[in-house]
Amino acid sequence: MTTFFIIVAVFIFLILILHRSASKEQESNQIKMQSKGYQINKSIKTGKYIAGHPSLNNIVAKTDIFPVDDHLDIIDSSLITQVKIASIEKSSIKNIVIEDQTTIEKRVTVARLLLIGIFAFALRKKQVNEIAYLIIEWNDGRFDHETIFQFEGKEAMVNANTARNMIIKELN
Predict the structure, then answer these.
(1) Which of 20, 51, 115, 119 is most buried (CB neighbours < 10 A)?
(2) 104 with 22, same domain?
(3) Residue 151, SS3?
(4) What is the per-residue pLDDT across 18-53, written as a single tens digit (0 to 9) for each?
(5) Domain that holds residue 133
(6) Model-level pTM?
(7) Secondary structure of residue 68 in the 3-state scheme
């Protein structure tokens, strides 16, 4: 019985150490982001980057948008150290829309962008999981772009709408 309590105590101790280490790492990341000119309180959680930005070729698991002066910086938050991966000029944004999975499946332009998505929709899980998409429509002076972010889970639509409203607020 004593061995059991020792094992539990060691396990709890390790969890506390890991939690403290993660907190310090998060604090360090916030300091680094602030030193790069980003205001942490203006961070906009944008879920998973899917497609549509000419500077990005790969899906990014977790992103944030930070408004900076006349543009929005897209940050890869899936890494230990957050990194700027792309940017969109605020003045180039034409529209910001939210769509659910069934609506986005019907869009021809998105279907082309999400070639792999076609297979994902065909092999859909039986478990219902709410998915919402935030789409930023913008023009770089030459081409129209639809930069797409995906939100997943119970609050997907709420989170997408919150991100949309925060971006719109930054554009005004």
Answers:
(1) 51
(2) no
(3) strand
(4) 666 666 666 666 677 777 778 888 889 999 999 999
(5) 39-171
(6) 0.73
(7) strand
